[in-house]
Write a structure and sequence with these properties.
- The protein is of the alpha/beta class.
- The chain has a domain at about 260-465: Nitrogenase molybdenum iron protein domain (Rossmann fold).
- It is built from 16 helices and 18 strands.
- The chain has helices spanning about 55-70, 70-75, 95-105, 135-145, 155-160, 160-165, 165-170, 185, 205-210, 235-245, 250-270, 305-315, 385-395, 410-415, 420-430, 440-450, and strands at about 15, 20-25, 25-30, 110-115, 120-125, 130, 150-155, 175, 195, 215, 280-285, 300, 320, 330, 335-340, 355-360, 405-410, 465.
- The strands form five sheets. A five-stranded parallel beta sheet has the order 8-7-6-9-10.
- Helix 11 (about 250-270) packs parallel to helix 15.
- The radius of gyration is 23 Å and the shape is globular.
C-alpha cells in the first residue's frame, strides 16, 4: 500500500498529437473542455472557467476603448469589470493584463480570488508547507500533486496516514488533533504557508487572526452542489486551488472527470419516471438516534443541498425529505433535519421508504471517536464491527422490507462531492438502469487521482455494507 505516485513529476503524461488529450495515471482527459462556471479568480475578465491569454487581450481592448472614449466599443466588450481588476487595486490598467499573463505562465507571486464564502483574498503562491483540515482538503492536495508539501493534518486524516502518504512523507507530518478547537500554539510552530479549512464557519475569522504569517483559506469544498455546477463552491474551490498550487490543468481535469460521471448518472436518472424512482432516506448511524439506540425515536434526514442528498438525485432516487411536510421536522438545519421516525412510517402510508443509507463518522473533525460507530474506511478490512452495527440498525420494529446500507463518512467528507456515493447508490436502488456504472472501477480511478497505487477497493478497505 506504500507504493504510491507522490508528485506529478512521476506521473506519465502523454499528449495525443493535435487532440488536446492528456493521460494522468492511465485516465484520459480532454484539456480543451470547458466547465460551466465563471471562475471567481481576479483576472477572469471574460467570465469563463479559466484564466487565459484571452483575458489579457480583453483587458487591453477595454483599456484602449476607455482611453479613446469609444462607448460603442466598450459596450461590445463582454467584460467582467469586477474580475478584470486582476490585482484588485481598484482600477483596470495594464498591470492587470500583466498579472493575467503571469498567472497563465505560472509566475504570479500572488493570486487574488473570492474564497468559499465570497471574501476577497490575496493568496501567496510561494508555498512549501501546507496544513489541511479533515479529509476533503487532504485529498484535494493529493489530487493536485501536493503530497510532499503537506506537513500537518488534523487527527482524522492523520489516522489515515498509511493510506494517504508514503513512509517518508509520514515522517514530515504533524497531527494537529482537534481543529474544531485548534491548538494555535502548536499550529504556529509549524511555519505553515497555507492552511486549508474544512468549513467556512464562525471560527474562520478567528483562525485567520490567530494563525500567523499564513494564508488561512476556506475553499468551499463543504458545499458541492454538483447538480448545479455554475453555483457550486466545491467546483470553484478545486479550480481556485489549481491556481494557488500551480496545478491548473490537473484541477480542471479532475473536475471534468467528476462532471463526466455526474452527467452520465443524471442522464440515467432523468430517464427514470418520477413515479418509478425509489424513495431514499439519507440518515445517520450515530448515538442518540433511532438506528443505533433503541430508546430514540429521532433520525436525521439530509437535504438535497448536502452531498448525501445530492447523491440520491444522481442515483435516480427520490429523497424522502421532499415527501415530508415541514411540520414533521423536530429541528431544522442547513443540511439536515431531525424528524421522528414514525413521521415516516405513518399510519396512512402516505410516505413509503424503499432504502435507507446510513452515513457514519467514526473519527470526527473535533478529534473525538464516535462510540459505537464501526471501523470502516480505506484501512479497514475486518467487517465484524460493520456486521454487528448492521444487525443493530436492522433490528427495529418499524424496519421490515426496507433495505439498509451503512456508508463510510469518506463519501460525504472526502473530495468527490457525492458523485462516488451516487455510483454505489445507483447500483443498489436502480441496479438495472445503472448497470453500465461500475462504482468499483470508478472508485479505483479516484484512488489513482489521489496518486495511490497498489490499492484495489474490491479487495482493500470497507466503505459500504453490505458490499456492492
Amino acid at each position: 500500500m506504500n507504493s504510491k505516485v507522490v508528485a506529478l513529476a512521476v506521473v506519465v503524461i502523454l499528449i495525443a498529437a493535435g487532440a488536446g488529450i492528456v493521460v494522468y495515471n492511465g485516465l484520459k482527459h480532454d484539456t480543451d473542455k470547458t466547465i460551466d462556471v465563471n471562475l471567481e479568480t481576479f483576472g477572469n475578465a471574460d467570465k469563463d472557467d479559466r484564466i487565459s491569454e484571452n483575458d489579457a487581450v480583453m483587458i487591453e481592448k477595454y483599456i484602449a476603448a476607455v482611453e479613446a472614449g469609444d462607448s460603442e466599443a466598450i459596450s461590445e466588450i463582454d467584460i467582467s469589470t469586477t474580475f478584470a481588476d486582476a490585482n484588485l487595486d481598484g482600477s483596470i490598467n495594464t498591470e492587470d493584463a500583466a498579472q493575467v499573463r503571469a498567472i497563465v505562465a505560472g509566475t504570479a507571486d500572488n493570486i487574488w480570488m473570492l474564497d468559499g464564502v465570497g471574501n476577497e483574498r490575496k493568496i501567496s503562491t510561494d508555498i512549501s508547507r501546507i496544513g489541511c483540515e479533515y479529509f476533503s482538503n487532504t485529498e484535494l492536495c493529493l489530487i493536485l500533486g501536493q503530497a510532499d508539501k503537506i506537513v500537518a493534518v488534523d487527527n482524522a486524516p492523520y489516522l489515515y496516514s498509511d493510506f494517504y502518504f508514503t513512509e517518508s512523507q509520514q515522517s514530515n507530518i504533524t497531527n494537529m488533533f482537534n481543529c474544531n478547537k485548534p491548538d494555535y500554539d502548536l499550529i504556529n510552530t509549524l511555519n505553515l504557508d497555507t492552511y486549508l479549512l474544512f468549513s467556512g464557519s464562525a471560527s474562520y475569522e478567528a483562525k485567520q487572526e490567530k494563525i500567523i504569517d499564513c494564508d488561512v483559506i476556506y475553499l468551499g469544498l463543504y458545499n458541492p452542489d454538483l447538480t448545479n455546477t455554475e453555483k457550486s463552491s466545491f467546483v470553484q474551490g478545486v479550480l481556485k486551488a489549481g491556481y494557488i498550487f500551480g496545478a491548473v490543468d490537473r484541477a480542471e481535469d479532475y473536475i471534468n472527470w467528476l462532471i463526466d460521471y455526474r452527467d452520465e448518472m443524471l442522464d440515467i436518472a432523468d430517464s427514470i419516471d418520477d413515479s418509478d424512482k425509489p424513495v431514499v432516506c439519507m440518515s445517520n448511524y450515530t448515538s442518540g438516534q433511532y438506528f443505533m439506540d433503541d430508546d430514540s425515536n429521532l433520525i436525521s434526514v439530509y437535504r438535497t443541498n448536502d452531498p448525501l442528498g445530492q447523491a440520491v438525485t444522481l442515483a435516480g432516487g427520490t429523497n424522502v425529505i421532499e415527501l415530508l411536510s415541514d411540520s414533521s421536522f423536530v429541528t431544522s438545519g442547513s443540511y439536515a433535519v431531525k424528524v421522528q421516525i414514525d413521521s415516516i412510517f405513518n399510519d396512512d402510508e402516505s410516505v413509503e421508504v424503499d432504502y435507507f443509507f446510513l452515513h457514519m463518522v467514526k473519527y470526527t473533525y473535533g478529534a473525538t471517536v464516535n462510540s459505537g460507530v464501526p471501523d470502516h474506511g480505506y484501512l479497514t478490512t475486518d467487517d465484524s464491527e460493520m456486521a454487528a452495527a448492521y444487525a443493530i440498525a436492522t433490528d427495529h420494529s418499524l424496519i421490515t422490507d426496507e433495505k439498509i446500507s451503512l456508508i463510510a463518512g469518506d463519501f460525504r467528507n472526502g473530495c468527490t462531492g457525492g458523485v462516488l456515493l451516487a455510483a454505489y447508490m445507483g447500483s443498489v436502488i436502480n441496479a438495472e438502469a445503472y448497470s453500465d456504472i461500475d462504482p468499483i472501477a470508478m472508485h479505483n480511478e479516484y484512488v489513482k487521482w489521489l496518486g495511490i497505487e497498489d490499492y484495489d477497493v474490491s479487495e482493500d478497505g470497507l466503505l459500504i455494507y453490505p458490499s456492492v
